[in-house]
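User: Please fill in residues for this 247-position structure.
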């Protein structure tokens, strides 16, 4: 397994509110997370850093997971704890109330691959030359699309397409999608909407599926594609390739 992560401010934003981490625990499990901060220049930056810092610390201190149910319980417990930590930090500080972050993570264990999602950062998987999105965006436009209130064409040009319906730290309670995957995968891509919001999925797929590049080269090429598309947002990419030796 090889993996690589990269984040960039982009060409328009004054600071980078994205954060990421690739951590391992005492049992050799791996947890990769992308977090995209929201709630103002300062607040979003703080929230995303708090999220990845929290999970990096608690995950590194755990032993290998022994069952699927215990892994899901661990994720749920710590999502709740991280949400409370960020929420209380914002409430207690003038100007930071409402700060929060997306969180999209892939935990690779011997009991399966666990995907956790809050917000609109995304996880994709690929196998047999096909890239597939495996998370659902927690956005107003996606909810309206699912309920038949918008067509796909209308959704693409919806003026409030970036409005989130769920985020870590914004509200006292948070919901998270936690799914376990046992199917064969060649790798996983995690990214913020600075990539998937501006670069066509066919372009993302062509880069991810390139056999002549390692994860470092593919990650940097995905970042370049986002910058070439205008670099309107912060961009974060984490690529995990299961077909090679660990870096």
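Assistant: Residues filled in for all 247 positions:
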């Amino acid at each position: 397994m090889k993996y690589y992560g990269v984040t960039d401010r982009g060409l328009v934003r004054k600071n980078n509110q994205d954060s990421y981490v690739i951590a391992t625990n005492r049992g050799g499990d791996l947890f990769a997370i992308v977090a995209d901060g929201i709630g103002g220049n300062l607040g979003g930056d703080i929230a995303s850093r708090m999220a990845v810092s929290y999970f990096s610390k608690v995950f590194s201190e755990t032993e290998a997971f022994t069952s699927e149910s215990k892994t899901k319980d661990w994720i749920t417990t710590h999502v709740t704890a991280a949400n409370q930590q960020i929420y209380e930090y914002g409430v207690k500080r003038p100007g930071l109330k409402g700060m929060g972050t997306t969180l999209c993570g892939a935990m690779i264990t011997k009991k399966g691959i666990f995907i956790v999602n809050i917000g609109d950062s995304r996880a994709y998987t690929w196998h047999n030359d096909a890239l597939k999105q495996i998370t659902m965006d927690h956005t107003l436009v996606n909810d309206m699309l699912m309920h038949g209130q918008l067509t796909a064409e209308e959704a693409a040009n919806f003026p409030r397409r970036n409005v989130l319906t769920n985020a870590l730290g914004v509200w006292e309670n948070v919901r998270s999608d936690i799914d376990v995957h046992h199917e064969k995968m060649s790798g996983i891509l995690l990214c913020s909407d600075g990539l998937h919001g501006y670069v066509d999925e066919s372009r993302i797929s062509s880069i991810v599926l390139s056999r002549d590049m390692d994860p470092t080269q593919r990650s940097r090429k995905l970042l370049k594609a986002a910058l070439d598309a205008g670099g309107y947002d912060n961009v974060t990419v984490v690529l995990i390739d299961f077909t090679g030796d660990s870096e």
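For context: The chain has seven helices and eleven strands.
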